[in-house]
Amino acid sequence: MKNxxxxxxxxxxxxxxxxxxxxxNERQYFVFQGxxxxxxxxxxxxxxxxxxxxxYPIMKVSTNxxxxxxxxxxxxxxxxxxxxxxxxxxxxxxxxLSRVSIILGSxxxxxxxxxxxxxxxxxxxxxxxxxxxHWFINKMNFDILPGxxxxxISGRNIDLNFQAGLFSDKRIDLxxxxxxxxxxxxxxxxxxxxxxxxxxxxxxxxxxxxxxxxWLQTGRYQVEVNGSKEVIQINSNPQNIKLGxxxxxxxxxxxxxxxxxxxxxxxxxxxxxxxxxRLNTDYxxxxxxxxxxxxxxxxxxxxxxxxxxxxxxxxxxxxxxxxPCSEKYEKCRPPSRxxxxxxxxxxxxxxxxxxxPFLVFDQKYEYGIEGIKGIFKNLxxxxxxxxxxxxxxxxxxxxxxxxxxxxxxxxxxxxxKSMNMFGKSIDIMYFKPDEIYLPEGDYWLSYFxxxxxxxxxxxxxxxxxxxxxTKEVTVPIYMEKTSENLTAEKNKENSSLSSKTTLSPIKN
Length: 508
Hints:
The protein is mainly beta. Among the domains are: 140 residues, no CATH class; 177 residues, no CATH class. It is 8% helix and 50% strand. The chain is built from four helices and 41 strands. Strands 1, 4, 7, 11 and 14 form a five-stranded mixed sheet that branches. Strands 29, 32, 35, 38 and 41 form a five-stranded mixed sheet that branches. It has a five-stranded antiparallel sheet with strand order 31-30-33-34-37, with no helix packed on it. The chain is elongated. The chain starts with a helix and ends in a 16-residue tail after the last helix. 28% of the residues are buried. It comes from Fluviispira sanaruensis. This is Lipoprotein.
């Protein structure tokens, strides 16, 4: 009986040992090495019905550990890298986690210390499982698995291909670029875009506050601050670029509320026709020449900005006021818009309604009135508020007179004769208009009446027009009378231009 029991126990132990040997043959050790206390996720790779890979997370694996795994395909991953391997060979599988180190252009540890407010570089990587981007600011080290992986540091891609069994510590050198402004500009940033990259390389802009330091890899970059741009070559030397400051001022007491009530908008300015600037705001810009334009106008000024210098571009306020409508008139039509000119040129730099405050630069301008082209008056503006110039109103009574022969009215126009005014209006159409607005000043109302076969002097009538005043004048229109039967029909045609009433060439 005892012999049978011993044989049975021996048989059970033999079967158990065989099963253990068989189980060990189906498992293999995986060795994960690298710097201490680094973790990655281990996934088991299987396939679904459509033979697509499926990743099942198994465990978190720490560096310098040895794990017994069933044979098969596995996948290691962290936020920036991945590695796929087969755990099927007779030898244990060894995988080493390497490192990418960011070196800030100096071996001096004091220079390598980062202040988040003053030193900035950006980096990102693609998550190997979900394809999402992971962004980092001022990250000094990255743990990278073997195989082909990539990082993007300061706007430039870094392709990596570490060996599975060897530890690598790849160094990425960054070099400082600092843009210095002479004034405190907490809200201003400068931006950097790599230029010398291939078409497949991803480009992205990185930024830092002015008076801070941006760390970049060597290469060419387009650097922009407040719309001003420069191309800068980054090499193995620190660069400190000094900026200037541009300010476009607003008159201290400019009546912005009056402007808004008159239908106007807040006023902005542009530099180089593209970049919008708020008034009374300091903007650091690269040294250089700039064209400053008031929004919605051709009013412009060219300026030079030097490094470490604050350039203040002055604006001045002005307004052209319309005259009130007297009680003796049932109604008065509103004046046409005011046109702003320079150097007595006819083209318009800006058009504004009457009674609306507007801005110009500290330069010489003239203004005119739409509908009475050709007469200009010097525009005076104020550095503190607005300088108001007043319009006058001329009520014209067109008096028709019939004559025989060739005696006719040839032209009617206003000619300026004040010191601060110049020009003459284009010929005024008969019967249109009956109301004209002109800048305050002295004029000649000129017209020619006589035999059109002869050259006779024109007639001039002095018209002194005060600002805000209305002046009535009578202008005779001589027309040929052919017969009494045609008179009524001619009178009907007076609302336009009679077929016998033509504007012949001006005879001065």
